[in-house]
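Let's study today's protein:

:::
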Amino acid sequence: LFMLTIFNVAFPAFAEDAENAKIAFNTHCRTCHSLKQDDNRLGPTVFGIVGKPAGQAAGYRGYSGGLNGITWDEATLDRFIADPASVSSSTNMIYPPVSDAGERRRIIAFLKTLKKTD
């Protein structure tokens, strides 16, 4: 009974966090980036981006350069979302940076969920 009570209390908080993470992405990123694999738009798809080399989305030809040798880990994504030019001085990303660290954490948490499931 105790474990069931903890689960019932914790699950709504998890669902709320997940929804807030998706809202953060939609607010700041969805205009240019798709969540679907191989669906590039103004910017490349962000499906499966966490842990991948930058500038490598299949079929996306709009890269501005300056991304060679960069891997999209949490720290690099955080820096890029906060100030794209701090990661790539020649970036084409023009959307306003996200100054709120909590909002960036939510976006990155959401990006981490976008991966193939086997």
